[in-house]
Amino acid sequence: TKARLAENTSSLVDLTNSWKQNHGPLPPSLQVRLKTLHLHACTRRLGIDLVGLVENEDGTFDCALRSPGLRPRHWAMIIPLLPRGVPTKGLDAVFPGRLTLSGDDQQVVGGTKIDLKALLEDPSMNEDADNWDALDQEEIEAMKEISSAYQIKKFEDVDIEQYPRFVVKDFGNGPKAVDRLLKLLLPAAKAVFEKQEQDKDTAKMATDLRDKKEAIAKRRKAQELADQQRQFLMD
Fold it and tell me: Cα 60 vs. chain centroid, distance in angstroms?
């Protein structure tokens, strides 16, 4: 149960080490399940809710991983946190035109150096922050129409090109599918988790600092009031 509820791969590693210490080596069947749980933890961290194969005209298959909440600026914030500061080779990020400032579909190819400024901005939009707000509001309305992934019976029923997604080209369907996906998703999932934990720590420090300042201000005010009362009695 703890493994199924683990929020990140680090927690699963800790559980694995605990098992080894208490019970010895993991049986093969459990190793396979743990890999799957690692993959599930990665998909949750990256907002992936649907995974399926898309057939190309040449008969090959790409693996598409839908991430409805992913935006170009989100990916631009994650990329610098990845090894060598480039998106993971073999994992492309694709954004439909309705989510880009230019209005054109945008593909970020894994393994290539990315112009992050171009990913975040469109010169024709004059860097107007209101444009981001307008796009976000439009997407909020669009998200209301998205059916729950649990209600989807066939991947073919989803117009995957209408959603932001990760794509693994020429994926195939061999027994190493989980291993391949895990290898590609783990760097980004780990980066997102570490950044979120860092943000939590920063927010906690800011809250603690604010509380301390407020406490000091209250003590100072109380001291000033006491001094005023003492001075009044002396007069």
Answer: 28
Local confidence band at 141 (pLDDT 50, 70, 90 cut-offs): low
CA–CA distance, 84 with 72 (Å, rounded to integer):
19
**Strands 61-66 vs 50-55: parallel, antiparallel or unpaired:** antiparallel
Helices (H), 6-121: 9-23, 28-45, 72-78, 116-120
Confidence check: pLDDT of 44 > 90: no
* Residue in the structure block whose two tokens are 């800011």: 206
| Nearby residues of 64 by Cβ (< 8 Å), 6 or more positions away | 51, 52, 53, 54, 160, 165, 166, 167
Per residue in 211-223, pLDDT (tens digit) is 787 778 788 887 7
Q: Do the strands 61-66 and 165-168 form a parallel or antiparallel pair, or are they unpaired? A: antiparallel
- pLDDT reported for residue 1: 40
CB count in 10 Å sphere of residue 172: 13
List the chain domain ranges.
50-173
**Contact predicate 162/96, CB 8 Å:** yes
Quick one: which of 77, 75, 80 has its CA closest to 92?
Answer: 75
* Pairing, β 92-95 against β 61-66: unpaired
Q: Is the pLDDT of residue 89 over 90?
A: yes
Tokens representing residue 198 in the block: 């860092």
